[in-house]
Structure formats: C-alpha cells, structure tokens
Design goal:
The complex is a heterodimer of chains A (about 375) and B (about 250).
Chain A: H1 3-16, H2 29-45, H3 65-76, H4 82-85, H5 88-98, H6 101-112, E1 118-121, E2 137-141, E3 144-155, E4 162-168, E5 176-182, E6 188-193, E7 202-213, E8 217-218, H7 224-230, H8 232-257, H9 263-288, H10 297-318, H11 330-338, H12 348-359
Parallel strand pairs in A: 1-4
Antiparallel strand pairs in A: 2-3, 3-7, 4-5, 5-8, 6-7
Helix pairs in contact in A: 1-3, 3-8, 5-6, 8-9, 8-10, 9-10, 10-11, 10-12
Chain B: H1 3-19, H2 24-32, H3 35-41, H4 43-57, H5 64-68, E1 72-75, E2 79-83, E3 93-96, H6 104-135, E4 137-138, E5 141-142, H7 147-168, H8 174-204, H9 210-222, H10 227-241
Antiparallel strand pairs in B: 1-2, 2-3, 4-5
Classes of the chains: A alpha+beta (about 375), B mainly alpha (about 250).
Chain lengths: ~375, ~250
Amino acid sequence: MDIADFRAGLRAWFTTHDLTPPPAAPADVGAHVAQLSRVRRELWDAGWMRYGWPESVGGLGGPAVLRAILGEEVAARDLADSGFFTLVEILVPTMIDYAPPELAAELVPKLLSGAEQWCQGFSEPGSGSDLASLSTRAVPQEDSWIVNGQKVWTSLAQYSQRCVLLTRTAPGHGGITAFLVDLDTPGITIRPLRTMDGAEEFCEVFYDDVVVPSSRMLGQPGDGWRVATDILPYERSTCFWHRSSFLFSRLDRLVGEAEEPDAGAIGSAYLSLYTARARCRETVRRFDTGGKLGPETSVDKILLQTAEQELFDSARDLIPGAVELDDESPWRQEYLYSRAATIYGGTAEIQRNIVARRLLDLGKEQ
Amino acid sequence: MDAEELNLLSQTLAKTMAATPSGPVLCSALNELGWREMLAETPDVAVPLVFRLLGETGAHAPLLADVTGTGTLPYAGGSWVSWSREDAEILPVRRTEAGTPLSPEALAAGRRAAGWWLLGTGRAMLELARAHALDRQQFGKPIASFQAVRHKLAETFVALDGASAVLSAAGTGELPALLAKAAAGRAALLASRHCQQVLAGIGFTSEHSLHIHVKRVLVLDGLLGSTRELTAEAGRLVIDSGAAPRLIDL
C-alpha cells in the first residue's frame, strides 16, 4: 500500500473510531497496558496493525515505513504510551528472523493483536552497558534447557505472557543464546520495580531452575548477541520516529499551556526536536530502501535523547511548579521519565564512545 | 548529474579552492568552472556543494551575492554589512548603511547557502581537532585516547551530522531555511568551542589555521540572522501558531 493512501485511510478511520483512553493517573502502568491492548486489538481487527509485517506472521505486507506512520498517528492522538506501543518493533523482528517459522506464525499474531504482552529480558544487575557480560545461565538437559539467574529493567514483565530472554551458554560474545520463555513456567518470580516517576513499568525477574523447551530457542546456540544487536536498526528507525512524534505532541501541549512562553526556549526545544526528526527521516528512509544501519545510528540516539531532555526542562521552566508541586500533572511523570532518556537503550556515554571509535576512528581508549 | 559526475565536480572545485587565492581571483576561477550556470540550472546541487566546500577548504569568495542578488546583507542586531571584493584572511565583510530588505526567497536562499558554509567550516575544524588529538602525545599516549577529549569530538560530530540533515531537508520555503541556518550556526558554534579546547595551546596561536575558521563562524553566524535570533524567531512562530510545524514527513 502506498504511504499517502495508508496515512489518509488511517486518519479517516480514526475519525469514526474513537480510541481515546479513559482517564488514568500518569503513572498507572496497568491502565496504560489495558489501553495498549485495546488499541492493538482495534487496529489489528481493522487491519492497520498488520501492514508492514510479513504474511508469515499474520501481516498484510508492505514496507516497514507504514508501521512508523501508524505509530506517529497513534502518538499524535495520545492513544497509547509511545514507549509501550513501539515494543513490538523490538520483539517481532527477532521472532521473524530467529524463531522457528511455525512458532512465529502461531505466537506473533497474539502479540500484535493485543491478546498478549511480551517483554525483553536482556539487562542484569551486573550487566548494564556491558551487556555481553551477562551471566544468567542456560544448561542443556535432554530436550530442554535449565535457566538460572536474574534479570532487571524488564519492561512490563508483570503483564507479559512471554519473554525474549538472553542467557549464557558458553563464554564470550559467542556464548549467548536467546529463548522465547513462557512467563507462567514454574521457577519464575517477577518483582515490579518502582521508579522515581512513581510508575511500576520495570521489573526484576528471577529464574530458578526454569525449564525451557529446546524448541523455544531463537536461532542457534551462540546467536544471542546477534539477536540483541539485530534489534538496533528497528529501535533506531521506527521506534525513534514514534518517539519524536510523541515529543512533538508534547511541544504543542507546552506551547498551549505555558502562560508566558519564552520564544528563545521554545525555539531552541523546537530546533533540537526538528533536528532529531530530520535525522530520523534520513535513517528511516535508508532502512526502508534496504540500507544497512550501523554505528551511525548513535548520532540519532544522541540527538533524540538530548532533544527529549531539553523539551521537558523547558516545560519545567515555562509551567512553573507543574513538575515538582502538582502530583497529578502529566508533566511530572513525563519530566521524571525523561531523565532516563540518556540511560536506557545504551547510555549517552556509550553512544559517544561508539561515535568516537567507529565514526571518528579515534582508535582505542586508554 | 550522477554520483560519479558529482564526485568529480566536487574534487575539481575543492582543488580550485585550495589552489587559488581567496576573494575575487577565486570568484573568477569558479565562474570559469561554470558556477553561475550551475547556480541557475541546478541550485539544489550547486549551493550545498560549493558552500560546503568553501567551509571545508577554508577558502572564501563573494558568492553569497550571487545567491541573494546583493552584496549588502542584513546582519545580527538589525545591522547591515557589505561584502567588499577585497582579499582578506577571514571574510571581507564590513559594517555599512542599511540596504534594501531582501525578498523572502532571497533571504531563504542566502540562509541555506550560509548554513552549508557553516557546516563545512565546522567539519574543517573537526578534522583539524581530530588530527591533532591523534598526533599530540601527553602522558605517553595520544590525547585521542582520553574519554573527555573523545566525547568533545563525538558531540561535535553529532551536532554537525544533525545540522546536515536539517540542511538537506531545507529544499524550499522560509521556515526550513531559517531552521537550517539556525541548526548549522548552532553546530558550528559548538564545533568552534570544542575544537578550540581540543587543539588547546596550538589552536590559540595564529600560526595554526583554527583561528581563521573560528572567526569565520562568528561572522557567518551573524549574517542573515544569528543562531540566537533565528531560534527565537522560530519560537515566536511556534507560539503564534499554537503548534510546532512538523515540516518533515515520511
């Protein structure tokens, strides 16, 4: 389907299908997840959620850019949390590329249609920026693998049915193996983690002698690092486009709510966000025409995370008290969440290290 | 023009700029290479290429007058400058009486061109700082191995790449051109600060070429509206219209 037709059709559909979320506290993650499921289900039933995904997983085909447009339209209407809505971008490609085809065909539609939530078990208490040092072990036993260890920062684990889990099966980068694990398997304990924005989005997940069938392995033993890094192009194209669209909606809201908007501050936030969007479009287009994405997407990440924090800093400046005095203000939760923008998905420092080493060719650090 | 032709043209232009004295002589040389015809026929190719290369090579020529149609240009703070055709190390720009206001189209075209020039200048500074960081040894190792130095260069790279995307998206229209000049000015000013710091003592001498780029960025930033002024103008526009124009779509 043509991009313009898709956008026009989707916009027309939204005029007759009101998916506005019911009122909920900004930090009420349960309400956001319920709304997310509803939005996905409606969009799936109407077909919109199926464009851009291959027919082998229940999709209707077409370019991935259609998914970027869907996310933008959802963000523009504030129908679902942009971070949650975009999770499928980092889960489904893994399934398409690494899961046994029949498994992907069976389960992916459940995720895309809102029947299920899934999560991603990558980070560990001892493995943040240095993800490849992860130590959650998987040991083979007959037709299964026995998993022991602990994950952290697993988004929405308490609402999820399944998890893409990275485990250690041998030493080094080549000794990481990925599985799709059912979270109702005995031995899994999920403990939500309250973050400074008052939300319980992230979880600690403990794995004690968890039995995972070999048929749930994603790829081959040792493919796990590739599974992790292959997600990057999706995160850095479609997901970033969604995020920049969300941030634009917040800039509009800021201009509407600020009593004395400062032209310099608004202009600067706009310029930063516009720059991130211009860069992101180049990346989305390159990816969509078959280009390979690599370390240069660290530029996109730095531009976007910087723009996000500048925007919410300006909001705090121009709507005095909203962040620190008004408990129920959405600015409070969103401002506080934006503090993590330079931490998650590879810290600001790691991104700069990548730019220095891979793009500027400055050689090794001391 | 295909990629190979463009590459060849780019090399010819860069060589000419490097080998010819800046000012009227370079202007004649570029005219002989067909600058004015290119500007008339394919401005979308000619302007980004020629102005970026002026920045990267550190050359200058009075080509903004060809783009805007006048050598008397508005400058920051409501002042005016004129472009004299004399040879000068930095840029032959001096204060003058108020001139005729530029048409919106001429102003936008001038801002795009100045933006590409700023971008090229920023890249020239980054290359100087990068080479120095790899070459300069302290504490028994190249200073490029220190994270504080690496991150300054990385931030410069990111800012310049971001500005490049904004410039590339500024095909036509006044607001895209305004944003492009602002993004390029912001990136070039950041590049000046970071590269000056990385180049440290040697970059503070007039024996090193950094100072020419640094001073040129200051002048180019002021031309046709400074980063600060343009950013505030964009802000007023957003405030007045009650929403931020997206301008860029997939």
